[in-house]
Specification:
alpha/beta; Spore Coat Polysaccharide Biosynthesis Protein SpsA, Chain A; 4-stranded parallel sheet; membrane; transmembrane helix; transmembrane; Nucleotide-diphossugar_trans
């Protein structure tokens, strides 16, 4: 009876070691896949700073590269100034002014980006700001999709 108990624990331990190794291998294989977030904004001064700080603060902890492009569609408020201030401190944040051609700017970004995940968020009216971080967190997650 004692021998069966010892064999049971040994098999359980072996199973756990194999599971941890497979999980580690899966996580390592997903690391390094860059995530590009394209935020289309207009009059976004009320939320853009918090959103960019949240995204750039989380980046070092997830092990993936994050690049954020903010496409400003003619904001009259402080949106451009806020993004420029953050981009001067964070090289992964870039401001693009879309003088009436947001689609052209986005197409240019997507064409030059090769491998990785691209996410486009239209924050002008269609999407709520609260949906951006959880959506990107799904790409950052260590859990298999």
């Amino acid at each position: 009876m004692l021998a069966l108990l010892i064999w049971g624990f040994a098999l359980y331990g072996l199973f756990i070691v194999v599971w941890k190794l497979l999980r580690h291998w899966m996580i390592q294989s997903r690391r390094g896949v860059p995530v590009t977030a394209i935020l289309i904004v207009r009059e976004g001064a009320s939320y853009i700073e918090g959103l960019l700080r949240t995204l750039t603060t989380a980046e070092p902890f997830v092990g993936r590269d994050l690049e954020v492009f903010v496409v400003d569609c003619g904001s009259q408020d402080e949106t451009a100034r806020i993004v420029e201030a953050i981009s001067s401190k964070r090289y992964t944040v870039r401001l693009l002014a879309a003088d009436g051609d947001a689609e052209g700017q986005i197409a240019g970004i997507l064409r030059r980006k090769g491998r990785g995940v691209q996410c486009v968020f239209d924050l002008r009216s269609k999407m709520r700001v609260e949906e951006v971080v959880p959506t990107l967190a799904a790409f950052w997650s260590d859990e298999p999709a």
